[in-house]
Amino acid sequence: MLKVITPAQAINIINSEFKAAKSIVEQVELDFAVGRILAEDIISDEYVPDFDRSTVDGYALHAADTFGCSEAVPAILNLHAEVQMGKAADFILPKGSCSPVPTGGAVPKGVDCVLMIEHAEDYKDGTIGATIPMAAGRNMIYRGDDVQPGKIILSRGRRLKSQDIGALAAIGKSVVPVCR
Questions:
Q1: What domains can you pick out in the chain, each with its CATH number?
Q2: pLDDT tens across 66-110, in order?
Q3: I need a surface site. Which of 18, 66, 74, 130 has the fewest CB within 10 A?
Q4: CA distance 36 to 178
Q5: What is the pTM of this model?
Q6: 3-class DSSP assignment, residue 24
């Protein structure tokens, strides 16, 4: 005869029957993790991104230096050190200055925006003219905007997809614990 049970009882039966399978955990490299089930929560130890960076090719600067400027009356800014892609911007940018930066490049400490190159005139005398006023935060991604240490990135029991592998790599994981 058919025995009717509650949903809670059904879940208990499933959990008890499959408990042994869940407890077998192995570490696999990310290349082999797609389709596998995470055995534990993945918690970030990293900031992503791990430094303040530009989202455009342009000039890192202080937004306040562009207040009230326009194409007719540009804000004149002194060119400072150029930031090379892949290099740290380990200097503080003085007020009234700007620093050329590439897309994805680090920005100097203390700057709060990046002026797109299309909105600047290079006067070829060590200065540029900013032709639009800037707001703080414009064209920048700040350290930890996407992920901060201690944040659960992926939860236990999740079947890993290809996009999860990218997230795991971004936080420095090369192997993950999965159910066997």
A1: 25-48+145-179 (3.90.105.10), 53-141 (2.170.190.11)
A2: 999 999 999 999 999 999 999 999 999 999 999 999 999 999 998
A3: 18
A4: 6
A5: 0.75
A6: coil
